[in-house]
Amino acid sequence: MAVDCCSFDIEALSELHPWLIKPNEQEIESLCKRTVTTIEDALSAAKQLASVGIGHVIVSMGGKGAAYVGRGGACAATAPAITPISTIGAGDSTVAGFISGFVDGLTLTDCLKRAIAFGTAACLTEGTLPPRPEDVTRLLHEVTMQYL
What we know:
The chain is built from six helices and six strands; from the N terminus they run βαβααβββαααβ. 43% of the residues lie in helices and 16% in strands.
């Protein structure tokens, strides 16, 4: 199960053992009761969440990229530089990108790479429009990964 992390506290998440959560900076700070300003902070907080039984934790940090901790280990992704039109739906698109990569049998780090491409592409559309496939394809080649 994938859950919207702003609906639960860390105790509830530890009981649910979700397959995936994707908090943003503010949500991870609230969940872990600490300041998260860097990818390193995000990785540390994601490890805390993974330790309570969450299978995959993606911390999205907007233009800074994202951190991943889960069954695939730990890594970070740098998002391509864009001028966002709207950030509405970017988080949901990030989740959709990760899940679609998983369904397609990608490695977990490639799932994160796809997730970042989806989320970034969503920022190039107005309002709640989904990411355009051509934007996802182009941005996928611009996401850089740091394997930890």
